[in-house]
Design goal:
Blueprint: H1 2-39, E1 42-43, E2 53-54, H2 58-64, H3 67-97, H4 105-112, H5 114-117, H6 120-130, H7 137-145, H8 159-188, H9 191-199, H10 204-232, H11 236-241, H12 248-258, H13 262-292
Antiparallel strand pairs: 1-2
Length: 293
């Protein structure tokens, strides 16, 4: 009985210490989420002094009958799949390649993560200047130096080339996160496991499957899950680079602040939250189920 009271007291004390953080979390996340759900059932006027009108499921019906919404979702799914796959694969490949001792390793690590720590706005405008139609270095090399093309490509004016460049930018911008995560795990793997596999005659791919992959699988699941969430809702990088790639973040911004349809924008965000939450749960469930087997 005394032990039970002691544990109960410790639990209460722990909750008391956590209370300020929980209250702050509810204020910053809980309230906006609840308010977003509420306004998804309302027609919100631009004038804050006017009353909002309850419209029920009309906002959701408007979303499901909007062709632009489906187009934006398809573009975003394709964009997310490309960026998540390439950034994760590139980060893992570089982490495996650099998982050894060599001169200047710290400098190389700093260079690899440079694109992740530099402010996005600097990188965005650097890319815009590189691919500028008039004085960009890429067009200078293609047209003036190697004469590969006769006319200057309008990189960010074409939907296809703009999509490719935005995808490449996102991969380059975000792969260091995967690199940092995998690098930490690879350094913790016992080197004797690789030596034992080598003695058994395993090649590099077999050593990866037998030793590396089981060790990085939980980290891989976390990296992919977080990257799906972040890339799916990407806005600033795409919007500042080009207006030709209408991902869901740009579509939501235009819906809320260009057309001022706040109710429909809220409904879209709720639907996308359900979609992404389901996707992440299924990914993690599949990973952990395979671990149990």
């Amino acid at each position: 009985m005394k032990l039970f009271k002691t544990r109960r007291t410790e639990t209460q004390f722990a909750y008391m210490l956590l209370a300020p953080s929980l209250i702050l979390l509810l204020g910053l996340i809980g309230y906006p989420m609840i308010y977003n759900i509420v306004i998804s059932f309302l027609k919100v006027p631009l004038n804050p002094k006017m009353e909002s009108t309850f419209v029920g499921l009309d906002n959701y019906a408007s979303v499901f009958t909007d062709p632009a919404f489906y187009k934006s979702v398809l573009i975003t799914i394709l964009f997310t799949a490309i960026v998540v796959f390439l950034s994760t694969a590139l980060g893992l490949a570089i982490a495996i390649f650099l998982n050894r001792d060599f001169v200047g390793k710290k400098l190389v690590n700093a260079i690899v993560i440079l694109s992740y720590v530099v402010p996005s706005i600097c990188l965005i405008f650097a890319w815009k200047y590189m691919f500028n139609n008039i004085y960009g270095i890429i067009n200078y090399i293609l047209v003036d130096v190697f004469k590969i093309v006769d006319e200057v490509p309008l990189w960010f004016d074409s939907p296809v080339s703009a999509f490719i460049l935005v995808s490449l930018f996102a991969v380059w911008r975000f792969f260091p996160y995967a690199y940092i995560s995998f690098n930490a795990i690879l350094q913790s793997i016992d080197k004797s496991l690789y030596e034992a596999a080598e003695i058994d005659g395993a090649n590099k791919w077999e050593k990866f499957k037998a030793v590396t992959y089981p060790a990085i699988k939980p980290t891989l699941s976390t990296v992919v899950s977080l990257r799906i969430i972040w890339v799916f809702y990407i806005y600033a990088e795409v919007y500042l680079l080009t207006k030709q790639v209408n991902v869901i973040g740009v579509y939501l911004y235009d819906m809320a602040f260009a057309t001022h349809d706040f109710g429909k924008a809220a409904a879209i965000s709720i639907l996308l939250f359900v979609l992404i939450f389901t996707c992440v749960i299924l990914i993690r469930k599949k990973v952990f189920k395979s671990d149990e087997n």
